Amino acid sequence: MTVGRILDRIWVILRGRVWLFTAIGAVPGVATLILIGAIFGALFAMGIFPPHPQAPASPQFVWKFFTAILLAMAPMMLVYAVFHAAVCHASIAVSRGAEVTWRSAYSAAWNKTGRYIWLVVLCWLIVSAPLMLAFALVGGMAALSMFHAGGAANPAAFLVILPILLLLYLGGMVYGIWMTLRVGLAFPAAVAEDLTAAQAVARSARLTHRAKGRMFLVLLVVYAISYAVMLVIEMLGMAGFAIVALIGSSLHWNALVGFVGLGILAVPAFLVFMAMMSAIYGIVFSVLYEDQVVRIDGGAQALIAGGERG
Q1: What is the pLDDT of residue 215?
Q2: What is the spatial distance between Cα 76 and Cα 84, in angstroms, rounded to a whole number?
Q3: Cβ of 41: how many Cβ atoms within 10 Å?
Q4: What pLDDT, on a 0 to 100 scale, did the predictor assign at position 16?
Q5: How far apart are CA 216 and CA 138, in angstroms?
Q6: What is the pTM of this model?
């Protein structure tokens, strides 16, 4: 398919099952909110937060907060592994004309949770590990310079480290985008062809050969559309706040009541939008996967065979 036909195919799949994909995408969003609430609740119970707004924060707050974030990565990897598999399962099923429900999509993903968790970890290591190692190297250089300076900040070392850090960041971003495209079809491949994590990564590398430019263009268009929709939602939200403030001031209402009421309406709308966007990217990679299977493996029979194996 051309880029235009790929975008049209994505829209057709989403339009026919918009509430299905929104419900699938809501799972990681709700799980994230629950986990954030649990983290801050635990930190509050531990007395990490200052008792009064004017009181300084505890010096233990930083390391305990980041420790909590690191501990939260394990359940979030589980949630996102199952979500990615579920949205790919639903996308491929709808694309091939099969019936699918929220329950069947997540049941299919849950049955092979261990495989999909390892796939998330493997993709994360491939995309992010070099950048993390680069930042660790820069951090080690900074610590070494402070050690030689008796624990004080070394301005000369900072001037040397800063451009190195900038170059590593830019290089890491380029590498991360390239490798994201390279492993982007791993989840649809694992779902459709019943592959292990390592096999899915290798399959994605083969399918994306000489296709990364087209994939990047499709993702860029989808991102631009989603960003434009987000701007519209933000402008509508600001207009709503302005109208509430104007009406409240004219009727001498308590402004806090109006803003809380508007927030109660705005937050669910924002969560629905984010759930839909999360699902859309799963649809994008699934459509790209099926297109590349036809391109690489030579014909629609490859899709039928892949479906039978899955």
Answers
A1: 93
A2: 12
A3: 10
A4: 80
A5: 30
A6: 0.78
**Assigned token pair, 227:** 């960003």
Per the listing, tokens 């559309």 go with: 225
**Do 176 and 127 touch, CB atoms closer than 8 A?**
yes
Block means of pLDDT (10 residues each) for the chain, 310 residues, are 90 89 90 79 66 55 66 81 94 89 92 92 86 70 59 59 75 86 94 92 92 93 90 78 69 60 68 86 93 80 47
CA distance 127 to 192: 23
The pLDDT value recorded for residue 308 is: 45
Which tokens sit at 89? 């399962």
Helix, strand or coil for residue 196?
coil
Chain centroid, CA 281 distance in Å: 9
- pLDDT at residue 149 in the model: 53
User: Nearest Cα to 98, choosing from 196, 20, 199?
Assistant: 20
Lookup: tokens for 2? 């051309």
Q: How far apart are CA 103 and CA 86, in angstroms?
A: 9
Under 8 Å between Cβ of 62 and 165: no
Q: How far apart are CA 245 and CA 257, in angstroms?
A: 10
Count of Cβ atoms closer than 10 Å to residue 278 Cβ: 21
H or E, element range at 271: helix 255-297
Quote the Cα angle for 130-208-25, to 5°.
Answer: 80
- What distances in angstroms separate CA 193 from CA 111, 168, 239, 296, one per listed residue? 15, 37, 48, 15
CB 22 within 8 A of CB 275: yes
Distance in angstroms (rounded) separating the CA atoms of residues 50 and 37: 18
Backbone conformation region of residue 98, classed left if phi is above 0, alpha if psi is from -120 to 50, else beta: beta
| pLDDT given at position 310 | 46
**256 CB-near residues (< 8 Å, 6+ apart):** none
Q: Which pLDDT value is given to residue 164?
A: 73
Amino acid letter, residue 288: L
